[in-house]
């Protein structure tokens, strides 16, 4: 059992009512999770205000309440702690509750609009293969060595993060690679963590529904680097126009990587084909199964990180060439009819453009590119016309369909995508609201040699419509449709 006053060490307090020398069995930020002996942290969120659930949490057994505003009437026998920032308090308390596990291993955070899952997952694979016990916290899953755990967020809440870091530390994990989303930073989910280093991939349009302006989104990402402890490292993409800005105020050791400009770590693309590309990294050639300029950046960031963390260049290059593509990231197969189907998690304008640039560079003649794409509901609406524009401009046929409409009418989302299509491209666009039918349509339209891109959902195994999730797997579906066509 933990003692409340120990959990509050380092949390700026505004007022305390009751004893802090009490035992705490469980730490919660959701009243529905509270049980006897819990400390309940009330958070003002986007949809609700945790302060409204203080009484409910006490009725469920909470013995301490941490909040930004004390309730008007205080209950006897309950300890109330007023803090300026509940989210920060939760993060610090969660770290202490689990014994500050981030200090028992080397934790490396990866942030940026695109490439976080790719970079963290491949660093995980590389360090495992190099013989280290390794951990991963990513959009797809959480891993501790060979053990795999499902996850709901790219960056989980502070309690979940610390509970997994604790498990990792118990299992003897030496390195943990973790995706750091802008929502995670804004909500201080990493508040009490000790980072060994952080990596910046790139910055482009996303999540403006939440951050409102691009500058606010950018500055949220920068906070990860501003907060790095002394002795840690900050690695940035010097080709990205915000790359140097990200690390300008950090106290960490600074490193950069780039394909175009001067940087500590440099790479060049020598050859490119569907099953891989040949890169030159720091004057050494290496073959990788991951294609596209965007993946050259990812591979270079991985090389630089492994080098900064002490691996030998030749060993890194050998391991890099053995890395597999990440689920749902440029995951492809070629059917018997010689149709190439690619499933990719491009759900931002920049990612969609990068993937289509890569695909178009693979065309040798008159092959058609058929893109099936939609945009998620209840999320950044301003990316919809931009993605509609890119898909119609860079494909011979674009089939606009549903992604995860969530609570929005799918047709309304598609209308917003259509608004970005230029007049000369409208004849290239088909609308098939049902994603399964859209994939079937693409398969029917494709001729031998053509390339089908199914973008936006990547590894996801569900589709969320009107708040309900049903099984859905882009890769499994396109594979079975194309195989049925030949059987
Ligand atoms: C908009 C957003 O990010 N919301 C996250 C946030 O919720 P919130 O604090 O706004 O929650 P809220 O529903 O307003 O409720 C406020 C408080 O009241 C509490 N409550 C609520 C109801 C109740 O009965 N009792 C109770 O105590 C809630 O637990 C909460 O503490 O904090 C929660 C706990 O950490 C998250 O689960 C939740 O993620 C929602 C589900 C979500 O969809 N988030 C997405 C957008 C997200 O975080 N995405 C990023 C990826 C972005 C990227 O790819 O770059 C991610 O890291 O996954
Ligand atoms: N370095 C990169 N630069 C630009 N685009 C990229 C890069 N790496 C991957 N992409 C594109 O972005 C998509 C998502 O990649 P990935 O899942 O690695 O990003 P992420 O940052 O983890 O995304 P999320 O914010 O959803 O967690 C890929 O499917 C690909 O289309
Ligand atoms: N990490 C992204 C995932 C979007 C994936 C897309 N398929 C959608 O549902 O919008 C986000 O939180 O916006
Ligand atoms: Mg991710």
Primary descriptors:
487 residues; alpha/beta; Udp-n-acetylmuramoylalanyl-d-glutamate--2,6- Diaminopimelate Ligase, Chain: A, domain 1; UDP-N-acetylmuramoyl-L-alanine:D-glutamate ligase; Protein-Tyrosine Phosphatase, Chain A; 3 domains; 11-stranded mixed sheet; 16 helices; 33% helix; globular; binds ligand UAG; binds adenosine-5'-triphosphate; binds 2,6-diaminopimelic acid; binds magnesium ion
Question: What would you note in describing this structure?
Answer:
The protein has 487 residues and is an alpha/beta fold. The protein folds into 3 domains: 2-97, MurE/MurF, N-terminal domain (Udp-n-acetylmuramoylalanyl-d-glutamate--2,6- Diaminopimelate Ligase, Chain: A, domain 1); 101-320, UDP-N-acetylmuramoyl-L-alanine:D-glutamate ligase (3-Layer(aba) Sandwich); 331-484, Protein-Tyrosine Phosphatase, Chain A (Alpha-Beta Complex). Helix content is 33%, strand content 24%. It contains 16 helices and 26 strands. The protein has an 11-stranded mixed beta sheet with strand order 11-10-9-12-8-13-14-15-16-17-18, with helices on both faces. Strands 19-20-24-21-22-23 form a 6-stranded mixed beta sheet, sandwiched between helices. Strands 2-7-6-5-4 form a 5-stranded mixed beta sheet. Strand 17 and strand 18 form a beta hairpin. Helix 3 packs parallel to helix 5 and helix 4 (116-129) packs across helix 10. Ligand UAG binds next to helix 6. 2,6-diaminopimelic acid binds at residues 154, 347, 376, 379, 403-404, 456-457, 460. This is UDP-N-acetylmuramoyl-L-alanyl-D-glutamate--2,6-diaminopimelate ligase. InterPro entries: Mur-like_cat_sf, Mur_ligase_C, Mur_ligase_C_dom_sf, Mur_ligase_cen, Mur_ligase_N, MurE/MurF_N, UDP-N-AcMur-Glu-dNH2Pim_ligase. ATP binds at residues 112-118. Residues 27-98 form the Mur ligase N-terminal catalytic domain. Residues 328-458 form the Mur ligase C-terminal domain.
